[in-house]
């Protein structure tokens, strides 16, 4: 069975802001706000002290690449425009916020949540536009953007490495669903695609941004180049180990064919901080790096952790819904509806069995991040 998840979908899978039992919009809002705290202080400083106010007679343009479809996309746009509007020389300017993502993104759901459009009482002070396309290609005219953001997208690949799906090659990713824990040759195939995608992303943004424009980002990442096979921090935290175990059990029982597991690969590779720096500075440095930081084991706390983790059943439901909201669309597309249901049931069952172990270590929930703020030269 061939993998049906096409490259054009790869980087869109960034924990969509839906409503699942145990993982509410309010919980996701709190989690995103915690993660955004990694970037906001440096972004505020750069916008206030390094962003050029010589934007000509037209509006100020802000873009969110790989935008999500909920409140956090709107709140970040409001956050940025409020900062810019606080500068007296920009207070009379119009602001245009461009939400950029693949054509399959649900822009209508996003637009319905805009302030003044059912998304809150506060009056919206900026114009809005949806822009369909890939962040790994040009999406805007030359020198047209003043501020741009991308959050939780740069670890998604522009395509799945073709080598890892070729049975005749030693790097065939048999029995694994991503680069994590795979052979060194397999991991290098992922890393190479990641490096090419990162270079392309920053090259395209350099073309689109004005001189002294500001670009900010954060994504899951690694400290350095060493051990790229260790993508997911440790197996006590990330659900991939349990997910692979559940899938393998169904294969062993004959419920799902082995080839279906072997042909499934998640288009994810967490970049290291030096790989990001290379992509930013090569082949010609177009950006001045204001901040480039690695945050090891950033702890995140769900808004209703007491309810989510109160017993084995609640924990199993919570972890299953988080998996659905993250990798769910990709897994469902590959497996089909019925096998997907069996997979989620088995994963939920195994999560419940795993509850005593997780409870004993305090339900660790942390992610290591790379973040940065750049200024266009």
From TrEMBL:
Alphabetic keyword roster: Magnesium, Metal-binding
GO molecular function annotations of the record: metal ion binding; methyltransferase activity
Signal peptide (from-to): none
InterPro entries, per database record: MeTrfase_7, MeTrfase_capping, SAM-dependent_MTases_sf
The keyword Metal-binding appears for this protein: yes
Pfam families per record: Methyltransf_7
Keyword Chloroplast: no
Protein's UniProt name: Uncharacterized protein
Annotated source species: Ceratodon purpureus (Fire moss)
